[in-house]
Amino acid sequence: MKTMSAREAKNAFGLMIETVRAGPVLIEKRGRGVVVVVALEEYERLTVGLATKEEATKRGAEATRN
Prior knowledge:
YefM-like fold, elongated
């Protein structure tokens, strides 16, 4: 995984976006990883089905109350 400092990411935002399109980028602050930036396609792949799980949990909780 590519790593960039927060300062590099800020100063070269366009470059970071292009880099993220090739794979996730770890952003570090003071030498420690703080966030990982991923492309929209990867985010969508990772979150498929989460909304339906949350909705099912909510429906289950509502059914319990009634």
